[in-house]
Amino acid sequence: MRVVAVSSGISWVEVPEADLRVLCGCPADSVKHLIKRGLIVPTERGGVTFETGPNAILLSDVPLQNGAFSNLSEFPILQMLYRQGMIIPGHPNCSGRKPLLLGLAQQVEAQMEYVMRGNYGLLSEDEMLAAGVPADMAAEWMRMKLRFAFGAIRPPQDLLDTCIIGDGSAILPGGVTVRRLEVNVFEFAYAGETAIVDLNLGPGRTYETPYHLGYHDLEREYFSVVHSGEGDGWDPERAAMSSILMFQGKIYLIDAGPNIHSALQALGIGVQEVEGIFHTHCHDDHFCGLTTLFRADHRIKYYAHPSVRASVAKKLAALTNIGEDSFGEYFEICDLSLGVWNDIDGLEVRPIFSPHPVETTVFHFRTPWEDGFRSYAHMADIVSLDVLGQMVDDDETRHGISSELMIQVRTDYLVPADIKKLDIGGGLIHGCAEDFREDKSDKIILSHTALALTKAQKSIGSGAPFGTVDALIPSYQEYRLRAAHGYLAEYFLGVPEHQIRILLNHPVVTFNPETILLREGSYCEDVHLILTGLVETIEPDSDQTATLSAGAMIGESYALSGEPSFETYRALSFVRALKIPSGLYRSFVERNEMSERISRLADLRNFFNHTWLFGESLSNLTEVRIAETCQPYYLATGEEIDMTGQDFVFMVRDGRLDRHLDGAVVEYCGIGEPLNESEVLFSQAGEGRLVAAMRSELLLVPGSMVRDIPVARWKLLELYQRRQRTFSSLRQEAGAPS
To answer: pLDDT tens across 316-348, in order?
Structure first.
């Protein structure tokens, strides 16, 4: 038995005698990690070249860990079916054996629905009609979808085998067994040999990125395209195809693929700065980074055609076990009309239908300028004109597309733009560079491929390494100082404008990545208001770190108190900050009679900033709102608290609460621990009894406020699911019904 620790939360278990190779844990880009570790390699048999790889996947017991999806089996399954050849007739690997999914019944069932949505998107004309697609268009799309699907929407059971890991040992092919020791900890056994696999992420750990993106210092342009990924779902060295638009100081994403959090950090963009996302479709290499956008303290705008949004919401619901209607609780939904220019505060966007197995649009963007417009076209995913031509069939009773639609798609593909980024991934569902040889666009960028460009392709289009920028309209304004004014004016509400200008009249300084801004034990000589970039706080003797972004003030409380810093502040990216001398800041606060308010809030903000629930991606103003609205609650030793019907998140500020379940203490809730997530999220009473182990102080944060903070809501959902799974396991061990 061979066991390999592949990456955080990913392991490999191989039993050659049983012809079993298990990918244990499948977060984003797990296939790329296997390629990097040499566990997927090219091979040849019988004159056929294909890849090696896993033939089974062990799912995490919990769908979310530290805010990210734990179970994203779409690309590992595709790798088995097509790149290994398990589904290709006549292939040496096509023996009738199917990829095997292992795990809890709930997680296996969720993955089957998720795989179904990833394969097909909306499954019927009725679902398309419900998403607002006109009847004639829905009929045409369904004809096309069935042609891509070779004639039928097949249930995932036709493609996959499953094995439920329940209370005891589950038997796998070849006589290998696997059993759960505790949540996310499994033991494999074969021929007297055992191996233990732990899929849990530790506190503060994240799933790793398989490639290094470096650090990039971006200017905020008037209208520019930042290239944030040119690879595909198989490229182990590059991020998947995506772009970032900067327009009038605002930041918009186009798609959210795997590890978008790493891309944003490398580019010095905090998730709080993201104004919105334009979404093309629901395939994982464009979809699975959505959870990063949930880590904001406000609902980011979601721009897509309603059919795309519907397919995305259904796939997301399968992964998270929450209803489709919850999509609007994390995003501000902004539906776009197909084929026309939609105006978004001066940035115009035209979504154009793109033939694909799932609902897909490409985007054209433009904004007025001196000689008309400046424009950018983002074309992922498209299909080659050759493949599309083979699908033409004007008989409406047959699967395919009409010749009229074929002509329209070809015309739409070739609409010129100042810059056009193309999917040239090839095959049955991706584009071909040769189709654009006569394209009149000023600059064509070739993307969405793991292969090196050929000479012929290089004569058609350019490349765009990560972090490079095409500025369509340069900026002659300082957007960072405008943002600084907004942060200060909102924070010091009611302070006269001329007083705010005192603080603004200071230099903007740049910190290189990994630079310490303020060291533990040192005195704060300057308060730094972050304008762009990310800063982490490192507290001694604690695994928890906080991430601060635009709008946060570094060293404020220490500047006011005169005490040395209790933690270290360190740049995670290039950071631009307004540098305000501590003495001046202190006198400013005193002169405007805000010392009492800020000092009162500083202690509370410091506490919340060092908790798991509120210690990430909260703006300065959100921290203040939480601190101003929370209420203290005190418990004597041995006192029990009943949270039933209480619409508050209870945070342990001091002391400890013990959770009693079926006569035993099953959880110790210490300082910083959030409680009552089931009531706040689902109006359900929590499990067991909560009793103060000592004199304790709780802070009550209104549930309505927490539900309006996507990152906090998302973390509470993860906490709820993990606790439910833990309590269920404990009951099973005790022999009680779960």
So the answer is: 999 987 889 889 999 999 999 999 999 999 999
Question: How far lies 507's CA from each of 502, 504, 526, 529, 577, in Å?
Answer: 12, 8, 11, 11, 8
pLDDT (0 to 100) of residue 616: 75
Q: How far, in Å, CA of 356 to CA of 134, rounded?
A: 18
CB 445 within 8 A of CB 227: yes
Helix (H) / strand (E) element for 409: namely helix 403-413
Residue 438, pLDDT score: 95
Q: How many CA atoms lie within 13 A of 481 on its CB side?
A: 12
Residue 344: phi and psi, rounded to 5, are -125, 85
Task: Name the residue among 140, 142, 30 with its Cα closest to residue 77.
Answer: 30
Percent with pLDDT over 90 in the chain: 82
pTM value > 0.90: yes
589 and 599 Cβ atoms separated by less than 8 Å = no
Work out whether strand 56-58 and strand 100-103 pair parallel, antiparallel, or are unpaired. parallel
CA angle 204, 528, 480 (to 5 degrees): 100
The confidence score (pLDDT) of residue 636 equals 97
CA-based torsion, 160, 165, 171, 172: positive or negative: positive
* Mutual angle of helices 582-591 and 497-504, in 10-degree steps: 170
The helix (H) or strand (E) run that includes residue 587 is helix 582-591
Strand partners, 632: 699
Nearest alpha carbon to residue 274 among 244, 304, 239? 244
Alpha carbon 386 to its chain centroid, in Å, reads 34
Instruction: Quickly count: other Cβ atoms within 10 Å of residue 633's Cβ.
Output: 16
Q: Strands of 657-661's sheet, edge to edge?
A: 640-641, 689-692, 657-661, 664-669
Rounded CA separation 639/54 (Å):
53
Do strands 2-7 and 526-532 pair parallel, antiparallel, or not at all (unpaired)?
A: unpaired
Checking if the pLDDT of 657 tops 90, the result is yes
Retrieve residue 711's tokens. 């990152």
Write down the pLDDT at residue 735.
Answer: 65
What integer pLDDT is reported at residue 378 of this predicted model? 98
In tens, the pLDDT along 358-382 reads: 999 999 999 999 989 999 999 999 9
Buried b (16+ CB within 10 A) or exposed e, 40-67: beeeeeeeeebbbbbbbbbbbbbbbbbb
Q: Give the integer Cα–Cα distance in Å for 433 and 423.
A: 8
Average pLDDT, the chain: 93
Amino acid letter at 18?
Answer: A
Q: What is the pLDDT confidence band of residue 738, given thresholds at 50, 70 and 90?
A: very low
* pLDDT class of 478 with cuts at 50, 70, 90: confident
- For Cα atoms 684, 685, 687, give the angle at the middle one, nearest 5 degrees: 120
Distance between CA atoms of residues 36 and 50, nearest Å: 17
From first CA to last CA, the distance across the chain in angstroms is 33
Pair type for strands 575-581 and 526-532: antiparallel
CA triplet 451, 457, 460: central angle to 5 degrees? 145
Tell me the two tokens of residue 404: 């009229």
Instruction: In whole angstroms, give the CA distance from residue 533 to residue 573.
Output: 6
Strand partners, 614: none
The CA distance from 549 to 574, in Å, is 11
Strand ordering across the sheet containing 443-447 = 342-344, 347-353, 361-369, 372-379, 419-423, 443-447
Q: What is the three-class DSSP state of 138?
A: helix
> Model confidence over 531-554: pLDDT tens digits?
999 999 988 877 767 788 998 899
Distance of CA 735 to CAs 83, 446, 686, 732, Å? 44, 59, 21, 5
Q: How buried is 333 (Cβ within 10 angstroms: 0-12 exposed, 13-18 middle, 19+ buried)?
A: middle
